Automatic annotation (TrEMBL):
The UniProt record lists the keyword DNA repair: no
Pfam families: FMN_dh
Organism: Aureococcus anophagefferens
Family (UniProt): Belongs to the FMN-dependent alpha-hydroxy acid dehydrogenase family.
Protein name from the UniProt record: Very-long-chain-(S)-2-hydroxy-acid oxidase
Cofactor dependency: FMN
Gene3D superfamilies linked: Aldolase class I
Domain FMN hydroxy acid dehydrogenase: 102-486
Keyword match Oxidoreductase: yes
PROSITE patterns given in the database record: FMN_HYDROXY_ACID_DH_1, FMN_HYDROXY_ACID_DH_2
Classification via InterPro entries: Aldolase_TIM (IPR013785), Alpha-hydoxy_acid_DH_FMN (IPR012133), FMN-dep_DH (IPR000262), FMN_HAD (IPR037396), FMN_hydac_DH_AS (IPR008259)
SUPFAM superfamilies per UniProt: FMN-linked oxidoreductases
Keywords carried by this UniProt record: Oxidoreductase
């Protein structure tokens, strides 16, 4: 879902001089090249790996060497304090974190978890998690769009408590609920337990989980926490095919059965809230950051007592994540195109389903299927990229009409309630990816916070299904045309057909 603001200026420079300013790319085989035989393939791979290690070491050294005297002093002091803080963690952390844990237990909604996350987190990391592009119009629209849709409740439907069955299949993974936790880079930035906490809660609720290529926990640690649930690997459009192949091979060995290519992040959006909150990677330990750290004792103690996180799925990345910001930015490949995507699908092979994440047009959805993608993942990257980008919920009917009823469609964006999930299913999605909803829980309280978020969403879904008189997801989708009402303004945006009944309301057919 999210990456560091520090990528933005670096990526912007590399985009304008893509082939000139990317030493990693020049040191590795071109995306379009295929070694003619196995022997040469091994040799090229070895050379590429060696060059990549040098580039990482160079990037890390430059980042460390570029610190000011004040930054170097504070970093050194933290290195001294960290072992002491870690030793005292079992005693002190439960006391420091008690108010946050109480807020998690008392939360009645995702909004309550958002407020709890804001209170626990450092101001700049909260701004990073909660913010969007520019004036955040796309972010607000992605959340508010669900208000345009109303549902016809049923009476005397005969559905009793415990009779709703929300089980479904998400990219080949059997799940108890029609939503799942989507990928997010750098989760240890929000809470020190990071992706392991997320995986543990996902396993508890038997929901699918997508893991970011820039995970700050190892594949093995996540698999240990959720052996049957963290099955989808999310990739970015990187220029180094050798590196991507190594990641894919490791994912296959660990047991991932699904792959999702995030195609809407090669250009990095303008995130003004991060500028206002002073977000930097690495931390510049400014007076503002220091004061905000003192205001957030639980988050700060977490930060001080744990080893700095790294990108654990990137081969040879044996450096703190903050040291590799430049290297990661140089890997972003804005010129990644359909031919490259075709290569990625073929490389994954018959391991499992492949999704294209970031689709917002029916024509792109059709071409994705023709290219080899099994699943269409409708998303606008959390409203963090193109300002005023269309809300994923609004574009669902167009995408469903373009690919037909048999292609799997996932929707991702703005979900804050289980009712939003139900509306998305009725409008054409097969399942729904949740990002900030569970991340607020993670930031507010680690695994208990994610557990609480998933519990809230699950209860919402079952309640809505009962009130609608639908026992299964299949029944909800079948009856969607008689259940779903869309206001006229929203229907005009999406080409809906006014079918009378109520002034200003449209009966919106969702399944073509």
């Amino acid at each position: 879902m999210v990456l560091s603001r520090a990528l933005r200026p670096i990526a912007a420079r590399s985009l304008s001089t893509a082939t000139k300013s990317a030493p990693a790319a020049s040191a590795t085989p071109s995306v379009g090249l295929a070694p003619p035989n196995a022997v040469e393939d091994v040799q090229v791979t070895a050379e590429a790996t060696a060059a990549r290690k040098q580039e990482m070491a160079k990037a890390a050294k430059a980042k460390v060497g570029g610190k000011s005297g004040w930054q170097a002093f504070v970093s050194g002091a933290l290195d001294v304090v960290r072992p002491v803080a870690a030793a005292a963690w079992p005693t002190l952390m439960p006391i420091i974190d008690a108010p946050s844990q109480k807020r998690v237990r008392d939360a009645a909604s995702i909004e309550d978890l958002r407020k709890a996350a804001e209170k626990r987190m450092h101001a700049m990391t909260y701004g990073y998690l909660a913010g969007g592009a520019d004036e955040e119009i796309a972010l607000r629209r992605s959340v508010s769009c669900y208000e345009d849709v109303e549902l016809r409740h049923a009476v005397l439907h005969g559905v009793g408590h415990g009779e709703t069955d929300l089980r479904t299949n998400i990219m080949g993974v059997e799940a108890d609920l029609p939503f799942f936790v989507t990928s997010c880079a750098g989760q240890r930035m929000f809470h020190s337990d990071g992706e392991v906490a997320t995986a543990t809660a996902a396993a508890k609720h038997n929901v699918a989980m997508a893991l970011s290529q820039l995970t700050t926990s190892t594949f093995e640690d996540v698999r240990g926490a959720a052996p049957n649930h963290a099955k989808i690997l999310q990739l970015y459009v990187w220029r180094d095919r050798v590196l991507l192949k190594e990641v894919l091979d490791r994912a296959k060995e660990v047991g991932f059965t699904g792959l999702a290519l995030t195609a809407d992040f090669s250009w990095v959006g303008n995130r003004e809230r991060e500028t206002r909150t002073g977000f930097t990677v690495p931390p510049n330990y400014s007076w503002r950051q220091t004061v905000d750290a003192m205001k957030s004792p639980a988050w700060t103690y977490d930060f001080m007592s744990r080893v700095p996180y790294g990108y654990k799925a990137v081969p040879d990345a044996d450096f703190p994540a903050e040291s590799l910001v430049d290297f990661i930015a140089q890997q972003m490949k804005p010129e990644f195109d359909w031919k490259d995507a075709e290569w990625l699908c073929s490389e994954w092979g018959d391991t499992g389903k492949v999704a294209l994440k970031g689709v917002a047009r029916g024509e792109d959805a059709k071409r994705a299927v023709e290219t080899g993608f099994d699943t269409i993942w409708v998303s606008n990257h959390g409203g963090r990229q193109l300002e005023s980008s269309v809300a994923p919920f609004d574009v669902l009917p167009e995408v469903r009409a373009a690919v037909g009823p048999d292609v799997e469609v996932i929707m991702d964006g703005g979900v804050r309630r289980g009712l939003d999930v139900i509306k998305a299913l009725a409008r054409g999605a097969d399942s729904v990816a949740c990002g900030r909803a569970y991340l607020y829980g993670l930031a507010a309280g680690g695994e208990p916070g994610v557990d609480k978020a998933l519990t809230i969403l699950s209860k919402d879904c079952h309640l809505a299904m009962g009130l609608l008189g639908c026992r299964t997801v299949a029944e909800l989708k079948e009856r969607a045309p008689e259940i779903l009402l869309v206001n006229q303004a929203s229907a005009r945006r999406q080409g809906g057909i006014f079918q009378g009944g109520q002034a200003g309301k449209v009966l919106q057919p969702c399944l073509q």
